[in-house]
Amino acid sequence: MRRRLGRPLTGEEIQLWSHVARTVRPFSGRSLPAPPQAGAEPEIAPALPGEALLPSSRQAGPASPPKPALAPLVPLERRTLTALRRGTQSLEAVLDLHGLRQSQAHDRLRGFLMQEQQRGARLVLVITGKGAAGMAMAGDERGVLKRMVPHWLRMADLRPVVLGFEDAAHQHGGAGAIYVRLRRLKDHGP
Predict the structure, then answer these.
(1) Which domain CATH number covers 180?
(2) Which domain holds residue 116?
């Protein structure tokens, strides 16, 4: 049973909980907790070894449903990569992140990928740069965007947008660029 802190249980909530609690069989050696009183705080039941302290009314309740798994990332198909290398398949959009700070680059990357997905694009190129030696200033690392962009593409907020990604072919920037395959929106069909 979940309740907000600072708000007492209503009579309807107590009645509902009592109905649910009657259908639950307690662990061996335990008994069902007494129904909570209107306006009363739930008691804390003693925990078993390895079990967190929870309000007693929550221990007997049904478990919450598991969180949905993040959509998996898949590598680009070999046929697509070959077509890109040969120049028989073109890219639908390009984003160049050269010269941007991490926060700017992350915001721009998110906006670009979402916009291109809305537009119906399926394959885009993100240029990160290789991080030239000698260009690092005090406190900056060499190739920060090259390292961070793949990490951002794996994050939960972009998982509904990004299907997969791979390092680009030499003619598209090589190690300083990434091909990104975008997921189709449900509106655009399968």
Answers:
(1) 3.30.1370.110
(2) 78-188
